[in-house]
Amino acid sequence: MLINILLFLVAIYALFTFTLAGIWLKKVTFGKRFMRKVPKDTTISVLVAARNEALNIPYLLRDLAKQRYPKTLLEVIIINDHSTDDSVFQIENLRNELGFPVHIIHLEEFDIRGKKNAIKIGVQKAQGELIVCTDADCRVGEFWLLGMQQLYKGQNAKLISGGVTFIPNGRLWTVLQSIEFASLVGSGACAMMIGKPNMCNGANIAYPKAVFEEVNGFDGNEHIASGDDEFLMHKIAEKYPNQIVFAHYQPNIVFTQSQENLRTFVQQRKRWASKWNHYKDWKVTFLAIAIFTLNFGMLLSPILWLRNDLTTSQFMVLWLVRCLPEYLFLAPVLSFFKKSSYIKYIPLVQVLYPFYVVFFGISAWKKGYVWKGRRHF
Fold it and tell me: Which among 263, 261, 256, 208 is positioned nearest to 236, based on CA atoms?
């Protein structure tokens, strides 16, 4: 009975992953490589929530200064979330050479903290029609804002989500994180492209200020530390299901830092996993449970094989049917992120992935993690 269930789940998963691969190839790899040109006349407010990012934020500000977008239509709002380093000094030091206004908001003046509160205050103070968000440790290309604006105006988008990947540093640890993260970004992008959005990333996201206010921002989930991106997307998707757009252009990719070590990686993933049981869409919850069950079964498969409950042929077919569609999906996604050299490491990630899913699936039910020097419960 257990074997039949496992084989059935793997077959369904393979079909699901083949479907993702087909969507990606059609919409991104072989899709249109140009955007409809519209006037560059949208005022933009870039929001950056920052906590102790003195080493990173000067690079982001210099990237923003190189944008191929009219500086007269641009403002940057840095929301300082109780930083204890010299982040503010670094911002002040660069202000006069950037060519656009940089506003600093201090959350301690409002006696609040956290990224959702930072974004909420930032939106309230923003003068721009389009809100564009990224993180203080990110790097962006010179056509980033132009691409977001063109998608917003050209497709009447109510939320735009762009690709995010890690900055290469020559470490295998970063390569493995990049492949795992590419699977999340890629699957979330495919869901958007078929009008079923479920995942996005707050490091590369944009939406009209009016739409944020229309859906009442983070009301209803403000008590959850994570989810400043996905919960907002779900609320916007309820009102505008066909106007959630993935920015499938390489100039719109945002680059960020990978986690330095296993400890911070675990805390980050526990932070992400903490929101799983707060999803209101039963389909997202069902998908998470199904993926957990499948990967738990994959961990059991060697034991079943050693006990002769699973024949050698069944064992090999099980892993082949699970891994081949993943490879066919991940390879073009990695190529999109200019990481074709990472493709050869996909099999290693596929072996490790069941351990990852089961560990964090269980961790999601245990409250508590540490992030940015704060303990969350």
Answer: 208
Q: Kindly state the tokens that stand for 19.
A: 């479907």
Cβ atoms of 366 and 264 within 8 Å: the answer is no
Give the list of residues 6+ apart from residue 176 with CB closer than 8 angstroms, or none: 345, 348, 349, 352
Among residues 156, 142, 190, the alpha carbon closest in space to that of 28 is found at: 190
pTM for this prediction: 0.90
User: How confident is the model over 179-217, as pLDDT tens digits?
Assistant: 999 999 999 999 999 999 988 999 999 999 999 999 999
Longest dimension (CA), the chain: 71
* CATH 1.10.10.10 for the 35-266 domain, yes or no: no
From the number of C-beta atoms within 10 Å of its C-beta (0-12, 13-18, 19+), residue 58 rates as middle
Q: Where are the domains of the chain?
A: 2-25+281-362, 35-266
Separation of alpha carbons 262 and 43, rounded Å: 41
Q: C-alpha distances in angstroms, 277 versus 31, 284, 288?
A: 35, 10, 10
Element (H, E) at 62: helix 57-65
- DSSP letter for 260, please: S
